[in-house]
Amino acid sequence: MNEQQKLKKATYHLYTFLVSKMIGALGSHVYSFGISMYILSMTGSSLSFATNIILSYLPRTIMSPIAGLLGDRFPRKWLVLGGQTGVILTVSGLLLYTHEFGLSLMAIYIATVFNSISSTFSGVAFSASIANLVDEARLQKAMSFNQLSYSISGIGGPIFGGMLFGFVSMEMFLIIFICAAVMTLMLESTMNFVLYKKETIHDNAEKESMFESFKAGFRYVNTKPIIKAILWTALWLNLFFTAINVGGDYILLTILNLDPKYIGFTEAGGAVGILITSIYFASRATVKFPLLTVKRSVFASSIVVILSALPLIVTFSALMNFIYYLIIMFLFGALGVITNTPLGVLMQTSIEEEYRGRVFGIIEMMAMSAMPAGTLVFGILYEFIPAQCILIVSGLILIGIVLLLLRPSILEMAHPELKKVKLETEPVTE
């Protein structure tokens, strides 16, 4: 295949990737909305609802490194298609059980576990393959399309699910998800996952035992200060940003007594921020210094966490509270894309092919492990400590984490050109 044919195939990948992710994420959002509403309406228990969320996090945390390891040892396309097939079979099994015996809480929990395991293998393998699907010049566009697909489905999924809930049976929610997953599988099966795959220097991965190969992934991360800094930053960010995820609805509904319909609009503001910023990144040139951009956007996000406490200190009207938090959520969504898109490009280009699966598996594990821990910790803290104190302290800690883990020496290591720019701009002294 010559270069022109490869570019044509990469263009096909770019838009197939967007459509497949959008369909898959939309089906997943509709399914999640339907299942969540069913659990709450059937049990009326927030504990049952939280249990389902934890059962979706834990398998991802445990299985992500294994999925990454297998992604470095076997063709990633097999894992992507196999994981997607596992999702289809799991939800089809739940549909069959529902048709025969009726939907039960235990059946939902079991399906959630198997669905989470299958989607972990598919998601990690796909993330590690993006650099092989498109040319390097359009990696930023591919990462932006990924954010774009989730933002559109994040807006449309709950709206579509809300229109269906109460009018159709739960079986219809399952059928919609199965149809979306089948379409995603068909589209992904047409992709060439080795289009831009680079030849690996070391050829001993398959000769190593699984355990040795697993340890080699951690050793590789340990020898890469930039990747290690990114991993630890991701862990602490996911932990402390949970302060907003857990406390957002609690603050708006319980403390500020905002009308529930307005709370839905504030959450949609985040999805709109993701949408607009994703379109911007998809149309602009690749960021020159991605890690510097990440540092600035995370710093700005930390300031937004602190600012989100303002209506709890200064009394606003209900309308002002709504407008204020709508802007806050929009900024969170936009800054999330400004963080994730350059970071994704940097990870795709700086990690060697033979280790990419394992590193992405480790990233997924660290990110996922922080979320249930943060949910538990902040869920308890909001019961005993004023919300404004939690938000301000969390924001200040995040600023400290950014300044420490993404310090100038790490930035200059990632972008040596920064040191040259710094020397050129320093005043000359005699």
From TrEMBL:
CDD domains cross-referenced by the UniProt entry: MFS_MefA_like (cd06173)
Q: Is the keyword Transmembrane assigned to this protein?
A: yes
Q: Which organism is it from?
A: Solibacillus kalamii
Q: Does the keyword Ion transport apply?
A: no
- Membrane topology designation: Multi-pass membrane protein
InterPro entries from the UniProt entry = MFS_trans_sf, TM_effector
List residues traversing the bilayer: 12-31, 78-97, 103-127, 148-168, 174-195, 229-256, 262-282, 294-316, 322-347, 359-379, 385-406
Keyword line: Cell membrane, Membrane, Transmembrane, Transmembrane helix, Transport
Q: Give the subcellular location.
A: Cell membrane
Q: What is this protein called?
A: MFS transporter
Q: Which Gene3D superfamilies match?
A: MFS general substrate transporter like domains (1.20.1250.20)
